[in-house]
Amino acid sequence: MVKGLLYCAITLNLSQAIAVEDEAQKNGEYIFNLGGCASCHTIEGRAPLAGGLEMETRFGTFFTPNISPDKPTGIGEWSDEEFLVAMTSGVSPSGEHYYPTFPYTSYSKMTREDLLSLKRYLDSQPAVSQKNIPHDLSFPFNSRSILFFWKLFNFDGGPFISESSKSKSWNRGAYIINGPGHCVECHTARNILGGLKHEMFLEGNPDGPEGESVPGLTPGKDNRINQWSEEDILFSLQLGMIPDGDFLGGSMGQVIENTTSKLTEEDLRAITNYLKSLSRE
Q: What DSSP element (H or E) covers 57?
């Protein structure tokens, strides 16, 4: 009788642990999509999460890393804490500073729960053996030591803080855009050192990815989103179609495919709620 009860208790605890782990992985997959990880770390037609995407900038050429759970070439040996430090402080397990092409400056605002769920999902994916390609940067940007000083002027490292005077939906939208969605990284102009010009928050970036001019998301008179309703914004994020019947292209096309089209309607409405609340000029 005692053995039977003990067996049942062990089985129940094991089932509960598996259910918790499954839920964490499920949430992690959603966070993976929310963070647009596939857009940078998976090249179409190649192994998922193996990296190698080439990113041209005025500082030189960056190549995205392998984030599959392969131990020799990916992040399979990383502990939870090492992953958290990388995502929130921009420091690798070996103590090297990451370049801000990896948007830890936004990921630092993510909750610990979301980050650990993301790691559970990444750990559950197939391991891909592929060495990272070294960045090809001009002097002095090829020295990671300067990133310590870059962070002093361009990285606050603070977590997302909700505003009690705002609605739950508004705060969720603010969290997504400033945190995992890292919308600010592309839609905000940068200074001469590559840091965000916070005084031009979401007002557009003429020198975006691959030299692309990225439109503003604020309701200023020069931004076409100013003429869009919340339903227009929602529809464009779901399908990529804008009110005049055209489709969003360029890097935003990838964002639609890998990120916003996979989000819940509740989260998309939270995003539109936040965007519509931004101060007008």
A: strand 54-57
Q: Are 130 and 47 in contact (CB under 8 A)?
A: yes
* pTM of this structure: 0.89
CATH code where residue 264 lies: 1.10.760
Q: Are 137 and 241 in a shared domain?
A: no
Taking alpha carbons only, the member of 33, 251, 55 closest to residue 122 is 33
For residue 67, give its domain range.
Answer: 27-154
Q: Enter the tokens of residue 143.
A: 């020295």
Give me the number of domains the chain comprises.
2
Report the alpha-carbon distance of residue 71 to residue 19 in Å, rounded.
26
**pLDDT tens sequence across 234-280:** 889 998 888 887 788 778 888 999 999 999 999 999 999 999 998 65
Q: How far apart are CA 23 and CA 141, in angstroms?
A: 41
Q: Say how far residue 48 (Cα) sits from the centre of its chain.
A: 17
CA atoms within 13 A on the CB side of 254: 14
Domain boundary at 95, 120, 154, which?
Answer: 154
Q: Is 17 inside any structural domain? A: no
For residues 225 and 268, state if they share a domain: yes
> In which band, very low, low, confident or very high, does the pLDDT at 7 lie, cut at 50, 70 and 90?
low
Strand order in the sheet with 136-137: 54-57, 60-63, 136-137
Q: What is the pLDDT of residues 64-88, one digit of tens each?
A: 999 999 999 999 999 999 999 999 9
